[in-house]
């Protein structure tokens, strides 16, 4: 299950590297970027006279978030192929690492889906006239922050895919040696 595995992973990370290892600094940076954009966009961005521009911006954000999600799914399919190829998945399970990979994949996927959701909400919110200025700005900030963080998670998924392919190749090469296989595989530590 995701939540117990996620909490266990956070606990182990904090024991190994301290509290700062579990603080999502990159998420905080993405939220800061989103808040800055939401704050500095002029008020007339949401006016009926600029409806075409705000709709185009949100459509672009939604499209980009969809592309990020597609890139993530492509990486996830390769990750799953690698995780469950031959004895490699069993090895990760024995070393108590398989759950960590699955938690990271779920976390990345949720971040990417939330990006699409927030951008979609932003696109629909443009259609509503008379929303409070702070709400318009908050929706834009959430869309930008989630899209930026979704991009970061998608890049992490590609990095994880490459690392797993490398480690699986090393494992396959050394699995029949007398020492019982390599001990080189380490859980992905993206935040």
Please, could you describe this protein's structure?
This protein has 191 residues and is an all-alpha fold. The chain contains 6 helices and no strands. The chain has helices at 2-17, 25-40, 51-83, 88-94, 98-125, 133-174. Helix 5 runs antiparallel to helix 6. The longest helix has 42 residues, at 133-174. It is elongated, with a radius of gyration of 20 Å.
Quick structural summary:
The chain is mainly α and 191 residues long.
**Biggest β-sheet: count, sense, barrel?**
none
Gyration radius, rounded: 20 Å
| Nearest-integer average pLDDT | 86
Helix content: over 70%
H/E topology pattern: HHHHHH
User: How would the global form be characterised?
Assistant: elongated
**Poorly predicted ranges:** 187-191
């Amino acid at each position: 299950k995701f939540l117990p595995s996620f909490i266990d992973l956070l606990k182990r990370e904090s024991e190994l590297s301290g509290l700062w290892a579990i603080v999502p600094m990159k998420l905080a940076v993405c939220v800061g970027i989103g808040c800055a954009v939401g704050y500095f966009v002029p008020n007339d961005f949401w006016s009926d006279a600029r409806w075409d521009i705000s709709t185009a911006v949100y459509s672009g954000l939604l499209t980009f978030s969809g592309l990020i999600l597609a890139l993530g799914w492509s990486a996830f399919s390769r990750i799953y192929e690698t995780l469950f190829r031959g004895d490699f998945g069993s090895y990760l399970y024995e070393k108590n690492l398989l759950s960590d990979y699955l938690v990271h994949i779920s976390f990345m996927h949720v971040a990417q889906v939330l990006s699409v959701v927030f951008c979609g909400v932003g696109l629909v919110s443009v259609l509503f006239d008379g929303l409070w200025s702070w709400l318009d700005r908050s929706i834009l900030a959430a869309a930008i922050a989630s899209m930026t963080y979704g991009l970061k998670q998608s890049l992490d998924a590609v990095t994880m895919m490459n690392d797993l392919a490398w480690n699986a190749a090393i494992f396959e090469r050394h699995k029949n040696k007398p020492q019982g296989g390599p001990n080189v595989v380490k859980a992905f530590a993206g935040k």
